[in-house]
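ok, trying the design again with the full structure, not the truncated one.
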């Protein structure tokens, strides 16, 4: 029995080290441990019951709300009957309180300190105080003493106090592993009991509630609580226990706990209605609580062990994801930096060569967006008969052309080619933006998760990648402009020679005619102009010739612009996105590298927290394994 309670005490001490309690947003262990939670109305005798179990006066006393924070009380039975009893607080480790009046004062002082730290506006706080009492005269037991419940705020108490106390207690008793010790004065109607009301709310079948009747000795003359103790009035699965605590006169008269126990035994033995009942007295209550706690612990241990092992595995995975501690030697830092750069480059390359987030988006620019943009260009405005006539006339100047308006042809073609420039340059910018978005995706991939630890390095990688992509964008811009300018700089005369030859009477009919198509898709040699006036027919032929030439160049641009962009932007980005950064890093000294991989304080704190939790849970697992 001692080993079992000792095990739970150790596990609850681990909870204390973890800062884990019933109110923790993500309780790790506390809610898995069977815990006795003492609830009762204000002045129900709740604190007196605890002091009787401990055998010492150590709790604050007074009227109204005396207990203003939950008190997690661990009782540890020592082997030496001559050893001095003492208490230790979790907030003052290593300091032994051998004077129990000092324990009372420390509970009051720590409560005030905590409430002041919280702003000084609250009367109560849900954050617990942890106290361990070592004595040869106590059972191995852990209890949580809750602030007393109330129905009506008294003078000096805020109107919200009723709900605050109710919510606080409910948080501690709602867990299926909480054993509810419902303290109720026997001289009051059970139907009005605050403790029983709450127990009924969270434990409607009474499966985890133990009832305690106090003030049995001051019940109205002619009344007793025998039927309650026998379970006839209100049945609880784990029954009721009646106790007689010291009255205020006894406390003022400094009655010892030993004498109080003797007086309690004498009372129950002297009353015929209680003489044959076993479930009376503080000694019986302490033994019942200890035995009940042991039974609950034994039932829960396998599931607790399983839960701890699962949590350990989860924390180990989280710790691995956060990475190990950073070495600050130059070699180690340089190796880590270059390694992270290479991981990022591989992630970037994988996404570029991959599906919808990378390669497909680039292909979409070439196959859809660039084509749509070029097909929507206003070529027809250039090719209207009115514009053709105006351009031809302006190109000839004061000397009209003799045979073909060559200068006019050139001007019309140049005007058409100039339209191709913007869609081609827009395609460069679209691919540039896609590559920048891939950089963002790459630094947040699982293989680059370590970058989250190093804010400075991550920023440097993103900035350097952006700089590389901007340089490559300028290279692509220059090449595409050159492609457009090349088409305007030199017109393919063979195209027009083919047209002249095909249209001449001397053309060999055995030779197939060249297939030239206008921008509208019409076959140049199947068009008829005899339905037009001679002057319009002449202009329309010029317009169709220019249109057919532009159609050829448009096709060439749709083929060569993507090649130019891939050659000058995509391929170099895949081959050396962070090459400049890696060369720069290789020349950095130790202080510069340390600044570069200065780990985020948040990540470091997160790793330390997980490591601490992992260590404590591994300790808990060993304790359970040793016991089992």
């Amino acid at each position: 029995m001692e080993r079992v309670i000792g095990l739970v005490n150790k596990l609850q001490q681990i909870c204390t080290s973890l800062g884990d309690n019933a109110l923790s947003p993500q309780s790790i262990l506390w809610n898995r441990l069977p815990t006795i939670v003492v609830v009762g109305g204000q002045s129900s005798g709740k604190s007196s019951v605890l002091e009787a179990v401990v055998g010492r006066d150590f709790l604050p006393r007074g009227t109204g709300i005396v207990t203003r924070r939950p008190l997690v009380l661990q009782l540890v039975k020592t082997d030496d009957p001559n050893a001095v009893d003492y208490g230790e607080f979790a907030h003052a480790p290593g300091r032994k309180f051998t004077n129990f009046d000092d324990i009372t004062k420390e509970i009051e002082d720590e409560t005030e300190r905590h409430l002041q730290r919280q702003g000084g506006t609250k009367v109560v706080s849900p954050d617990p105080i942890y106290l361990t009492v070592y004595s040869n005269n106590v059972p191995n037991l852990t209890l949580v003493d809750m602030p007393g419940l109330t129905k009506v705020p008294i003078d000096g108490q805020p109107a919200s106090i009723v709900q605050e106390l109710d919510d606080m207690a409910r948080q501690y008793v709602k867990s299926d592993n909480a054993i509810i010790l419902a303290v109720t004065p026997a001289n009051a109607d059970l139907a009005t009991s605050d403790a029983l009301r709450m127990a009924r709310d969270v434990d409607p079948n009474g499966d985890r509630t133990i009832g305690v009747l106090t003030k049995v000795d001051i019940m109205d003359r002619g009344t007793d609580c025998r039927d309650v103790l026998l379970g006839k009035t209100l049945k609880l699965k784990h029954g009721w226990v009646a106790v007689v605590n010291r009255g205020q006169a006894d406390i003022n008269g400094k009655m010892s706990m030993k004498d109080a126990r003797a007086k309690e035994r004498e009372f129950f033995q002297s009353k015929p209605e209680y003489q044959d009942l076993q479930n009376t007295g503080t000694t019986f209550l302490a033994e019942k609580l200890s035995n009940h706690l042991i039974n609950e612990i034994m039932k829960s241990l396998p599931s607790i062990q399983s839960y701890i092992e699962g949590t350990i595995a989860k924390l180990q995975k989280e710790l691995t994801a956060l990475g190990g501690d950073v070495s600050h030697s130059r070699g180690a830092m340089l190796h880590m930096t270059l390694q992270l750069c290479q991981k990022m480059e591989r992630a970037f390359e994988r996404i570029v060569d991959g599906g919808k987030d990378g390669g497909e988006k680039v292909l979409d620019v070439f196959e859809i967006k660039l084509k749509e943009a070029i097909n929507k260009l206003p070529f027809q405005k250039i090719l209207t008969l009115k514009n053709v006539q105006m351009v031809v006339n302006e190109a000839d100047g004061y000397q009209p052309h003799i045979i073909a308006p060559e200068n006019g042809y050139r001007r019309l073609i140049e005007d058409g080619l100039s339209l191709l420039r913007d869609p081609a340059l827009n395609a460069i910018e679209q691919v540039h933006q896609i590559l920048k978005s891939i950089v963002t995706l790459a630094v947040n991939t699982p293989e680059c998760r370590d970058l989250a630890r190093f804010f400075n390095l991550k920023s440097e990688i993103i900035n350097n990648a952006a700089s590389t992509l901007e340089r490559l964008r300028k290279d692509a811009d220059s090449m595409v402009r050159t492609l457009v300018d090349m088409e305007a700089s030199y017109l393919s005369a063979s195209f027009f020679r083919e047209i002249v030859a095909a249209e001449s009477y001397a053309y060999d009919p055995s030779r197939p005619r060249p297939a030239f198509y206008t921008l509208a898709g019409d076959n140049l040699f199947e068009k008829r102009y005899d339905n037009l006036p001679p002057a319009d027919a002449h202009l329309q032929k010029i317009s169709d010739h220019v249109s057919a030439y532009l159609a050829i160049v448009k096709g060439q641009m749709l083929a060569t612009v993507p090649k130019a962009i891939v050659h000058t932007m995509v391929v170099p980005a895949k081959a050396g996105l962070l090459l400049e950064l890696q060369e720069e890093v290789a020349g950095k000294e130790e202080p510069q590298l340390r600044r570069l991989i200065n780990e985020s304080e948040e990540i470091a704190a997160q790793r330390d927290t997980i490591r601490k939790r992992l260590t404590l849970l591994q300790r808990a697992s060993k304790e359970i394994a040793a016991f089992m």
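Keeping the full-length input from now on. The beta strands are 35-40, 71-77, 86-89, 129-135, 141-145, 178-185, 209-214, 240-242.
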